[in-house]
User: Fold this.
Amino acid sequence: MARNNSSNRNNRNNAADQILALAPHLIEMLDGVQQVELEDFAMEIGDLSLFIPKGAFSSPSPAGTPPAVRRELPENLIPAPFHAKTAEYPGRIREVTLGATKADGGSRARAITIGGATMPAYASGAGPVLHEPVIALDVFDMEIALPKYLKENVLGVMQDPAEWARFNVEKLHADMVTVHLMSTDPLIRDTRPSEAAKTVEAVLQAVDVPVIVGGCGDPKKDAEVFARVAEMAAGERLLLNSVTLDMAEKKTLGAVADAARKHGHVLLAFTGLELNSAKELNRRLYEYLPPEQIVMDLTTVALGYGLEYSFSIYERARYAALMGDEELAHPVISAATNAWAAREAWMQLAPEYGQKQLRGPLWETINALTLLLAGVDLFLMMHPAAVLTLRDVVKRLSSPAAQEPADRLNGWVGVRL
Amino acid sequence: MTENTPAKNQRKKSIREISPIDVYKNLPRTNCGECGEANCMAFATRVVNGEKVLADCPPLFAEENKDALARLSELLAPPVRAVKIGAGESAVTIGGKYVLQRHEFTYHNPAPVAIDVHDLMPEAEMDERLRKIEGFSYLYIGRKLSLDAVAVRSVSGDAETFKKAVERVSRATKLPLLLCTTDPAVMKAGLSVAGSLRPLIYAATEGNWKEMAALAMEYGCPVAVSAPGDPPLLRSLAATLLGYGIADIVLDPGTSAEAGLSATIGNFTTIRTAACRDNDELFGFPLLGVPMAVWDAPEISEDVLKWREAVTASLLLSRYADLLVMHSLDGWVLLPQLIWRFNIYTDPRKPVSVEPGLREYGTPTENSPVLVTSNYALTYFTVESDIKAANLDCLLLVIDTGGLSVESAVAGRNLTPDTVAAALKEAGVASRVSHTTLIIPGLAARISGDTEETTGWKVLVGPKDSSGIAAFVKERWKPAQQAVGP
Assistant:
């Protein structure tokens, strides 16, 4: 009958404190709001007897319902034992290691390995996962337009990618950092590859976690930048985000893949919600480097704008891989930050839809959690409350299936609110 | 018989294994056309694809086809039973799931969201809450998303108090009800005033199943069996109620957002997997998820509880809940749930489409650019958000591509010079601008030449990705030059 052990209570309060400590607007909202003191739930069983009078069966069944057949009614619960089956899958997701320590030719404090799944995420009967999903936080190499409630958390560090990276690691405990070299876009600043490499170098010096390098999306420019960055950071096992079929078309894919192999980096193969394209791109990459240096991004669409397509693509890819499709047996990433593309995340709506400072971070959170269930191994994120919640849920889902006492789980029926 | 070992009969075919022939051979085969299809074979194909139901074939319901109908009903019965809650127009059907994973077929019967009220609520507060529940809605891609049911909880534990509350609720709303108490005497009081409305009886437990089963039979109401964290007990309760001849059963495996979250998601997954993959009939019932359970927590601020409820609800929607009970009425909590529910219940084989036609952004003038895109919702909303992000003043001509993306539509000939010409004419674009230049998507470059010929408009090939629209327009759109027609 132990209702709440005290450690449970502490965990709860700690989690709450943490969410609040990191999301200024959650705190602001709560200013002046008193903590609610819930009465201990209690079903006050009155003096009423549980006896059901005999005549009670006389009223007719409502129309449309088949009359219950009078039969030999069970006197006792019919035993119906259940043994959950543990499905075995022939396939297995490859493990990919990101970042390298000094011993392995890099300068990171530790490397992170993702992948290795042998079952769908959090499937029935799944044992502990080999590698828990990890979180990379974004850094941009130039001032960018961000929704207000993303921007406010990083205002002080936005001007300096290295500072921003340090903030992500020290304050938000990012497992990894992504530095987006947006300014290299020929349509924006067309920053030279050598200068972009310096930015990455500064980030590598500022933090000791594994680093992801994001390009601008131009297949030619990205190839030049990635080649230069790969050489500068030889041995660091960066994740280069990303290579595409566009690069294959523009004949720049080979150069990037060669650079990644030569200097020991990992490639992120990006395709748009299409498994055949994902397989094709991987096949092209196999010609250049070992499959253990490939991670996939199958495209994350914002909740409300097509998240269901992402959900089903990630589920299909993972299932196909576990059923033996080796061309899809790579760890996958999701840019949960894409959630902010949905107007419901950032737009002022009528008051009944609540304040956007809560709606926005929740949007990113749900985007991430949904794809967590579909098997994503690495999340690109931004909002502190979303990061905290994802980390908290991952921890809860990965802990052994501790069961709360049954009386506690039914407590909601009689709780006074 | 109740062991979940392989069934003694041959395993029932899953919906994916049923062929049109399986259906066809049980149809009247008269090709009467009453279903709107050319012949019985076409109808059979539609049925297998989930696009038509048996009820669309009236002759099948004639006396002489009784056996064929029974065989078809058995053949096409989903592994998760469909259970109706409520009466009349606002009744909801829950469950009726055919597959474990959405991409295998389609999820049917979007999970209703029930919001709670309780019997110690002051009357004015209850009325206000019911008004909010009925009034909450959000317009999403032209569809109205709203809440579906009311869960009346007995907090007093007193039969008379509960009865009054249920009576008040059933007068104030037509929404289906869930009556929530584990005390059969209290439940009986509630049913005495609302039993004819087919509420869901929540819940039959290890301690009260006999009395609750009797009430379910007496009132002909669906009943939830509850065994938090104990799937074997849950299965045993289902078997026992089936023994009573009660078939409209809902399963409550228990919801915990905290230490028990792993067990919660695990149990939901185990139960649904057993039903869909192993044909476990005792687990072949809809699942009840209770995000509201987070509110039974000590001394945490309300906003954190709401946050946690939102998180739990979204996880349960993705992991097989067929009905949710929630407490928070805050829009920021409910909005993502209603949108996500709408999304995962769409047919994954059919892209969602938007209305074709001409859209305006900013304050377009006669010199503003005219862009073309497809009516695939994902494409359309992406293009729209890029246009808005760039603060562009322009017109966007949305072509009816049958809901296909630009690339697929060009390949499938749904986006052709002719469809562009027809759309231009239909929308009267020529009268809106003083130029005759169109910007078509980069992925439709192939049709640019022919489109110029067919429409008489000059065609500029835009970027392949709409994120490039801003830069493209900035660089290439020179209103003064474009104003000169061909």
User: Anything to note?
Assistant: Chain A has a mean pLDDT of 83. Residues 356-373 of chain A form the longest helix (18 residues).
